[in-house]
Each structure stands twice: as C-alpha cells, then as structure tokens.
Design goal:
It is a single chain. By secondary structure, the chain is an all-alpha fold. The chain has a domain of about 60 residues: lambda repressor-like DNA-binding domains (434 Repressor (Amino-terminal Domain)). The protein has five helices and no strands. The model has no long low-confidence stretch (mean pLDDT about 90).
Amino acid sequence: MARSKKRVPLRPAVQIHRPGDVGVMLAQRVRECRLRLGWKQTTLAERSGVTLASLRRFESTGKVSLDSLLRLCHALGRLDEFESLLRPPPAESLAELEARVAKPTPKRGRQ
C-alpha cells in the first residue's frame, strides 16, 4: 500500500501594505515623476496613450488598469522597473537551485 504524502498548506507571508495602499503609493510616484519632468497631466496622457480622465482618476484614487499603468511608466521611462517584479526568491542552497532547474514549473495549482 502506497503511503500518501501529507500536504502542508503554504501560507503567504504577512504583508504590510494592502492593494489600495500600494495603488495610491504608485499614483503618487507617477505624479512625482511627471512633475519632475515638468509635464502636465495632458502631456503624460498624450505621450502614454492613456486618456486624461484615466490619468486623473489614477492620480486621485490610485485605481488604474494594468495596461494603463504600464503605458504611463513607459512614457515616463520607468517600464524596465517592472521586470524585477514577482521573480522567484533567491535559492538558499545549491541543492534548491538544482531542484528548480530539474523540476518543471507546474501548469496549475492544486487548490
């Protein structure tokens, strides 16, 4: 009789910020970048292809679509900063690194 492995549920790390807080923080940073360049909201909207209404809503509420956020960051010359998001954490050992290479990434979650 085969013994089944006991699955231990993984819990996400405790986080300091909430999604809405991060949205507001990003909106403030986009606004600061825009102002450092001396651009009006209309200038950034035109250069990014994001509507002026969407940019105004983002800067006041922190709510924006991912596509619009990427377009705004591209226009501000900051798009490359997204490349480092959601990378796997660094391996803690050589064995862990080898296991990552040998084991393919799952195509779907278990739960």
